[in-house]
Amino acid sequence: MSANLDIIKLSNAQIAWRAAQDIEDGAYVNLGIGFPEMVAKFQPEGREAVFHTENGVLGFGPAPAPGDEDWDLINAGKKAITLKPGSAFFHHADSFAMVRGGHLDVAILGAYQVAQNGDLANWSTGKGGVPAVGGAMDLVHGAKRVAVITDHVTKKGDPKLVQACTMPLTGVGCVTRVYTSLAVVDVEGGHFVLREKLPQISFADLQAVTGGELNTDGPVADLAVPEL
Amino acid sequence: MDKRIATLSDAVAPIKDGATIMIGGFGGSGAPIELIHALIDHGPKDLTIINNNAGNGHVGIAAMIEQNMVRKMICSFPRSADPRAFTERYLGGQIELDIVPQGTLAERIRAGGAGIPAFYTPTGYGTELAEGKHVEEFDGKHYVRERWLKADFALIKAEVGDTMGNLTYRMAARNFSPIMATAAAHTVAQVSSLVPPGGIDPEDVITPGIFVDGVTEVSNPQQEEALNRAEAVYP
């Protein structure tokens, strides 16, 4: 079945596109380093989100053209960014006051594992090496809505949506929605609640690659995403 | 009142072996490269360095680590494009690491500068970074108690400074510098442009001079990211 999943599953761009559709007009948004940064590219027409980066910029825009970088103007991933009209600079304590103080509407992060109680593991594989946490532990307890975008399973085919995280936690009970390569799943009351799934996969097959029990509390919509 | 320091070597001369030093910057943005390199020339050992990262390439903090000046790093993210200087010594047991969530690091520094010895934050609750720390419940939610963080010295980079120590910054290069300036016993800023009192509109001052002990002018300062992209090595 895993070969089959590889054919039907959404690309990273498509997962990012789906997550972007839920960002309301006027939202203040923090996107995690790497894959989540892609969400900014898919802002729906007519909606304006203001992007926050932990290192002290609000209202930044896309990367500049190669050669136009100013390395004093970067995001949390140390990548060059541009400014939009109405942007602001601030120091780190103010930046994390925005985070912990509940001023951000949405944070979208990557994950190693998400548990059915909303626990998130995304900072350490627990296998030694050099630990590095950055702002992830602050973000998961700050934003009003903490969403995860991820492949539904690991490269080896193991579930990333699990009953209980086995990897070191980033935060406890913090994730509210997961956008995967196969489905959109909410975390509610200590359970996974399936909201959308690719029409090509049956509920039973989706459950088979999900570590925790998938619940429904109404009709499950088709996860519909454009070719990107 | 005149806080000018004539040379970079004068600026770092008071820093002795065993000192704890906050160094401004997030990645290469805001890294006070000239002050760090002057500190390498001065050569104190056994230092504890507080920064968001743990050096990149072979300049700045990475170069300090390569000179075996650093005993301990307190940081949130000791990874970079080229983190070898830190990684090799960390895995070899020659350098200690205290990993702190980024927002907790910022707030610990802010608290240090504001005279608040401890505070509660939700960050890290239930994770291994909160092990052994006091937890308390407020309004049904769990919070971890964190201590303030202070330092003997802060070395920071600013854009315009006046001789009274008032500072402005350039874009995202501001990052940790304003809070570090408050939390160190002795703060030195390298400034791209040094002006007389009145040369900065009071409305534009980001760091008031009361937090700054010395300013030294480095016009056309080097930018760490640009140095690394040019594969620069110091010394």
UniProtKB/TrEMBL annotation, chain A:
GO molecular function, one term: CoA-transferase activity
Gene3D superfamilies listed in its UniProt record: Glutaconate Coenzyme A-transferase
Pfam families, sorted: CoA_trans
UniProt KW keywords: Plasmid, Transferase
InterPro entries documented for this protein: 3-oxoacid_CoA-transf_B (IPR012791), CoA_trans_fam_I (IPR004165), NagB/RpiA_transferase-like (IPR037171)
Coiled coil location: none
NCBIfam families linked: pcaJ_scoB_fam (TIGR02428)
Family: Belongs to the 3-oxoacid CoA-transferase subunit B family.
Descriptive protein name: CoA transferase subunit B
Species name: Qingshengfaniella alkalisoli
UniProtKB/TrEMBL annotation, chain B:
Keyword flag Lyase: no
Keyword Membrane: no
Entry keywords, A to Z: Plasmid, Transferase
Matches recorded under InterPro entries: 3-oxoacid_CoA-transf_A (IPR012792), CoA_trans_fam_I (IPR004165), CoA_transf_BS (IPR004163), NagB/RpiA_transferase-like (IPR037171)
Matching Pfam families: CoA_trans
GO MF terms held by the record: CoA-transferase activity
NCBIfam families associated with the record: pcaI_scoA_fam
Family in the record: Belongs to the 3-oxoacid CoA-transferase subunit A family.
Name under which the protein is recorded: 3-oxoacid CoA-transferase subunit A
Source species of the chain: Qingshengfaniella alkalisoli
